[in-house]
Amino acid sequence: MSNDSYFNITKQGLWGNNIGFVQLLGLCPLLAVSSTVINALGLGLATTLVLLASNVSVSLIRHLVRPEIRIAAFMMIIASFVTAIELAMEAWLFDLHAVLGIFIPLIVTNCAILGRAEAFASRTSIDRAALDGFMMGLGFTLVLVLLGGMREIIGQGTLLSNAHLMFGEAARDWTIVLLTDYRGFLLAILPPGAFLGLGLLIAVKNIIDDLAPKTVTVTPINLATESGAKTE
Amino acid sequence: MLLQHMIRTAALLGLFAIVGTGLVALTFEKTKAPIADSQRNALLNSLHQLIPETLHDNDIYNDFIIVNDPLLGAKQSHRVFRARKDSQPVAIVLEAVAPDGYKGNIFLLIAINNQGTLLGVRVVSHTETPGLGDPIEIERSDWITKFNGRSLKQPDTSGWQVKKDGGDFDQFTGATITPRAIVKAVHKSLQYFQANQEILFSRQVKENTDVK
């Protein structure tokens, strides 16, 4: 059962079976929202919250729910949490909510969340499910922020622009202008830039994996194919 | 046996539905007031950017009527906020829509004083191309402030176009359609104001409770 050790769950979520890098799930919001660091961070944190909450609830009811209705029950749980989080964001992070717009309700359709519920949380104890939800979410956030940072620097020459949307007025001058008088590189901000950026990041990850000493690790394919919910 | 199984399964799913709906309903109740506050503050913020608080002394947020006119773009209803000082009309803020943006509707707030001069224009929301069309946002460039002080006579009708079409207003590098749509919408709103000025100020505030 080394598969289920806390260390392994953490490692799988952040690196080995990362939602954005390896499972390649939830690409639609990932690519659409990652044009700046703050947008990326907002969506990443919202997704993490949903993953954590849904994983815990699914694990909680795993002995109760019958196999015939499990997907329906999981979807209901996920949809409820997403709606609740969307309302909360509109109430307390109004401007960020306006920027992220449709991509918050669309977290429901991020099949990574149903995938984790079905493939992992419904078969394990609450603490492991919670850790898995948190780490998977963190891994996803990490990819979002990396991609967001890359696109923001190349596209606009800044970092952390619009931080006040998330952290309040005090954060308005957090913006770091890395390249003054930069005219911008439009490709990075437009959708193709997102695809190219993600492709490059995945390539870098694969190179790192190839260079790393080969230890016996769990093949990520196992978990991904188990999930059954691969279509976007 | 089978029937019993089915009923139990259905009941279980029903239970999940009730709990889920309960969670959403609870959150909705808890967030209703803060959301309304945030929306109000966001709008008030834009209104005060256009009409400084020194210019009026009424509760501009609640002093509005709802109008409907093709000159304001889109078929939906538009709010018109009225600013008054000592009960005298000072200016209005129109909710207008530029329907022919590059990627659809551009929602605008347009402030016009009672002489028919523009106090300012702001983009409330849009879906124009990031990097090309978004200098219409006040956060990104001062293009939108070039409308300040303009009116139907300044420039005249032929000037109410982007420079590329022979008018007075700059277009952006790589984006002509977006500024063209806004110039057109602002021009039409001025025409609407000229034709309806009297009514706009005199019409009574409707019971707005359901719109809030």
Explain this structure.
The complex is a heterodimer of chains A (232) and B (212). Chain A is 66% helix and 2% strand. Chain A is mainly alpha-helical and 232 residues long. Chain A has one domain (2-225). In chain A, helix 1 (6-16) runs parallel beside helix 8 (126-156) and helix 4 (37-60) runs parallel beside helix 7. By secondary structure, chain B is of the alpha+beta class. Chain B contains two helices and five strands, in the order H-E-E-E-E-E-H. In chain B, a hairpin with a 2-residue loop joins strand 3 and strand 4. The interface between A and B is medium-sized, with 29 and 27 residues.
Q: Report the structural category of chain B.
A: alpha+beta
* Number of DSSP-assigned strands of chain B: 5
- Which two chains touch over the largest interface? A-B, 29 and 27 residues
- Enumerate how many helices of chain B there are, as a single number: 2
Biggest sheet statistics of chain A: 2 strands, antiparallel
**Widest sheet, order of strands of chain B:** 1-2-3-4-5
**Average residue pLDDT of chain B:** 87
- Measure the end-to-end span of chain A: 31 Å
What is the string of SSEs of chain B from the N terminus onward? HEEEEEH
**Shape verdict of chain B:** extended
- SSE class of chain A: mainly alpha
Query: What amount of the residues of chain A lies in strands?
Result: under 5%
Name the overall outline of chain A.
globular
Number of domains of chain A: 1
Q: How many beta-strand runs of chain A? A: 2
